[in-house]
Design goal:
Bound molecules: S-adenosyl-L-homocysteine
Largest sheet: 8 strands, mixed
Number of helices: 11
Strand content: 25-35%
Oligomer: single chain
Shape: globular
Radius of gyration: 24 Å
Structural class: alpha/beta
Strand order of the largest sheet: 6-21-22-20-19-16-17-18
Number of strands: 22
Length: 483
Amino acid sequence: MGSEMKKFESKAEFKKNQEVTVTINDLGKDGEGIGHIDGYTLFIKDALPEETVRAKIMKTKKGYGFARLVEIQKKAPGRVVPKCISARACGGCTLQHLSYEEQLRFKEKKVLDCLSRIGEVDLTGVEVLPIFGMENPWHYRNKAQFPVRRGKEGKPVVGFYAGRTHSVIPVTDCAIQSSPMKEILETILVVMEQENIPAYDEETHEGIIRHIFIRKAFATGEIMVCLIINEGFRKFAEQYGEPFRLALTKIEGVTSILVNVNKERTNVIMGTYTKCLWGKETITDYIGKIRYEISAQSFYQVNPLQTEKLYQTALEFAGLTGGETVWDMYCGIGTISLFLASSVGQAGKVLGVEIVPEAVENARKNAALNQLDNVEFFCGAAEDVVGSEEVYNRVGEAGMKADVVVVDPPRKGCDRVLLETICNMAPARIVYVSCDPATLARDVKILGEGRDGVQYEVKKVRACDMFPQGGHVECIVLMSKVK
Ligand code: SAH
């Protein structure tokens, strides 16, 4: 109760619109600066560690609040001028005002801090490999998703939502997108104006074009353009199919023009119905030597150059010599599974599990495409599927154990039941690919405590910068069974 009162008292000291001076000592998940005054925590967008800033309190909660940067009194040595003029307004790149070198240092530190603080890992016995940075941390993305809205005088605009809002900042020249995204976006705007095609209006739920989704396969140059629309496919295709086809096929690389129908009042970008207006349903990409067919709705890593380093590291950490049984949990379209399958040979087996049925379908096709028949995919929640009768019935005793387990869960991390099942399977090694170091550390601690005498310890860790200019941190950890 005492500490609760203290928190309450410290809250009472601050009011909305009050200006304070505060020193920043950390960065939050979304790249915001974090500072403390008398135990009260303030989150300040655009402020950096080592800076002293004047900030205006915007919102107060029990024990913490949000403030707006007013003036920098002492500048951080790593502060740089953002490359993109919309950086501050746009919610996309939250760390553009920090030098790339410092971004990497911050991300690596975040991973190690989480492991030691939350995971209670003694880092002295851990091999910490240097973070994989990018030589050129710009124009790296293979996927773009832009909202389209009515701008001034009813003209369509495309761009980004301003941080935490739904107003669109017009930007077609994004500093982290690859070419020719700008040309594609501008071409679509021209067609919309020429044909008088209205942009979507969230408030009235009227208008036609809601979003533009573009995905480019870096290895082959193939580009998929998908228009997300607020009306039926037939009507749209008859009325506007031809002008879009004519304009977009002039752009080099475009091999698919798709339409996705989303007539719901929702924040979810894509609906469930996708149909081809022109070209192929999927694009083909390669990561290393493995070939993948990717459809619009499948999860696919956004930074192909870094993805290859990440998967290569997963493979190295797995330490396969041939003949092993390996589980790939949260396998998506089988990206990591197929990497592993090409290393275990005919005597080995890779078993993948994924919750999204379309992704599992993609995974099976991709295995066939690469002539890999030593891999098997299961559809369902990993915590339900692994160790289940279904696995036993389909692949027998071999499926109930594993030499190596790879997990690559979404941000919320692994289900506790799954971690316990993994301990029961007692693999020699666990390779944990993570997009959130905090949940990784929580899970590492659970695996460290183990079950029935089977325990794991962290051997290696390596961060990989998948999102330069943004705040998210990706990393990979190798754990070994304690002898
Ligand atoms: N390893 C893949 C996908 C990683 S993203 C790659 O690198 O491309 C995480 C995946 O976990 C997503 O495809 C998501 O659909 C899936 N997923 C989420 N919850 C799950 C669960 N409980 N069980 C299995 N898969 C799940």
